């Protein structure tokens, strides 16, 4: 744990420990800091995942680096490991993401891509070596993730005033309240302050001095967004509107990728869709496909398609808005419907909506028209979420799960705004991986 200065409130330490204990603590701290460095993790991964299989297979004295089979495998493994590490680091930089859950699919993707390249170019390679490098890469970076989670605790000093104390409820950070203005001599990771607050001159000098000395200074709003994955908006200023405009080039590229992928998946899954439709019809009377008007891209209403998971007899009773809300343990859901919802299979007919240009694979979930109109009356800026195409899965779904009440929808809106602000292929890839985990665990499915 980092030391703190006299200006920072922290737990008092015991009397000076023995020199040997200090040396052990210093060495442990040095080792932990070294393991957190990118170049140490990358070079260590290369030595472990590629060097170990070579030595185990051939020993130290007769390494056949000059053979085409081995040189191709070594080069391919290094490329796959480096790109996997770069993707891996980008993904785990997002809030609420631990690398332990993503090392297997990320490195499977990069090693799989290199394997396809080997086959396409008809290059000789060692299956044992290549497979061992993949497994050891997963092991190495999983261990590094565990080390980072268990040893890396941010130490952040809070400048009192404004809304700074709202951060104290976040438990992932060691908070230290700065009691008085002056030089901050302790090695803290950052300083946070409500920069919209009218500070006295001595506090402004303190904040400026911290920034000049190399200590990052963050605004409360920005740091909360970084730690929670939620973008809270109190008013839409010009800067806010500019930061929430998604990348127009990626919008077009994403739509093309969505359409091509949807076409391939539709062709491959047509027999599977027919079996599901037959099972739905056999369990309860009514059509296999459920249709509902939803609010979509740029506020345009469209017809959304899903596999029906509820009994038709219940669908016509009650208020239109109430019927649009799926409650916990809803009695209308059939036995097959529970399975389809938990695995998200019921959403697959929305591939047709993607082909029609109304939806994307990833984006804010479209709401039923009655609910959307209700939320627009209750929640400020709700309509702004329609600036991107709605998706089959989204950031709010994998971070928060299913919601219904206005308070929950407001929190969901914060997640949607975060997605729009950080609109990128990296965030989409992370949502895909989290959606797969959701399908396996059932989180967020109702």
Keywords:
446 residues, alpha/beta, Rossmann fold, 3 domains, 4-stranded parallel β-sheet, two-stranded antiparallel sheet, 8 strands, 8% strand, disordered N terminus
Write up what this structure looks like.
The chain has 446 residues and is α/β, with parallel strands linked by helices. The chain folds into three domains: 37-151, no CATH class; 154-228, Rossmann fold, CATH 3.40.50; 248-441, no CATH class. Helices cover 54% and strands 8% of the residues. The protein has 17 helices and eight strands. It has helices at 19-35, 38-58, 68-92, 103-121, 127-151, 201-212, 220-228, 238-243, 248-283, 312-315, 320-323, 335-342, 351-355, 369-378, 395-399, 406-421, 425-441, and strands at residues 154-158, 173-177, 190-193, 217-219, 289-295, 301-307, 360-362, 391-393. The strands form three sheets. A four-stranded parallel sheet has the order 2-1-3-4. The protein has a two-stranded antiparallel sheet with strand order 5-6. Helix 14 (369-378) links the parallel strand 7 and strand 8. The radius of gyration is 26 Å and the shape is flat. The two termini are 42 Å apart.
């Amino acid at each position: 744990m980092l030391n703190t200065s006299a200006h920072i409130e922290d737990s008092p330490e015991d009397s000076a420990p023995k020199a040997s204990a200090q040396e052990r603590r210093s060495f442990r701290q040095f080792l932990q800091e070294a393991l957190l460095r990118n170049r140490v993790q990358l070079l260590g991964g290369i030595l472990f995942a590629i060097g170990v299989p070579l030595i185990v297979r051939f020993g130290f004295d007769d390494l056949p680096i000059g053979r085409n089979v081995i040189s191709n495998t070594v080069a391919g493994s290094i490329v796959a490991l480096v790109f996997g590490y770069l993707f891996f680091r980008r993904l785990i930089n997002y809030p609420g993401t631990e690398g332990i859950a993503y090392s297997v699919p990320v490195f499977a993707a990069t090693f799989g891509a290199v394997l396809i390249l080997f086959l396409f170019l008809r290059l000789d390679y060692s299956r044992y070596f290549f497979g061992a490098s993949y497994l050891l890469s997963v092991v190495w970076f999983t261990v590094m993730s565990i080390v980072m989670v268990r040893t890396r605790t941010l130490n952040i000093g809070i400048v009192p005033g404004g809304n700074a104390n709202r951060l104290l409820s976040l438990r992932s950070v060691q908070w230290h309240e700065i009691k008085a203005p002056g030089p901050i001599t302790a090695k803290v990771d950052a300083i946070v302050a409500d920069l919209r607050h009218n500070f006295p001159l001595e506090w402004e000098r303190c904040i400026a001095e911290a920034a000049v000395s190399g200590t990052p200074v963050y605004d409360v709003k920005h740091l909360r967004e970084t730690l929670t994955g939620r973008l809270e908006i109190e008013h839409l200023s010009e800067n806010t509107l500019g930061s929430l405009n998604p990348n127009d080039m990626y919008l077009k590229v994403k739509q093309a990728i969505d359409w091509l992928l949807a076409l391939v998946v539709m062709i491959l899954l047509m027999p599977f869709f027919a079996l599901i439709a037959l099972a739905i019809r056999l369990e309860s009377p009514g059509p296999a496909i459920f249709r509902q008007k939803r609010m979509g891209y740029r506020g345009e209403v469209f017809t959304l398609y899903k596999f029906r998971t509820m009994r038709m007899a219940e669908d016509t009773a009650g208020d239109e808005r109430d019927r649009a809300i799926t409650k916990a343990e809803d009695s209308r859901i059939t036995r097959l419907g529970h399975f389809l919802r938990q695995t998200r299979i019921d959403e697959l007919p929305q591939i047709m909506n993607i082909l029609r240009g109304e939806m994307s694979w990833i984006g804010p979930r479209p709401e039923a028209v009655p609910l959307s109109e209700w939320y627009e009356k209750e929640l400020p800026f709700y309509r702004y979420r329609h600036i991107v195409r709605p998706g089959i899965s989204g950031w709010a779904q994998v971070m928060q799960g299913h919601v219904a009440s206005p308070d929950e929808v407001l929190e969901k809106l914060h997640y949607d705004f975060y997605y729009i602000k950080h609109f990128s292929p990296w965030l989409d890839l992370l949502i895909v991986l989290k959606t797969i985990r959701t399908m396996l665990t059932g989180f967020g499915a109702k």
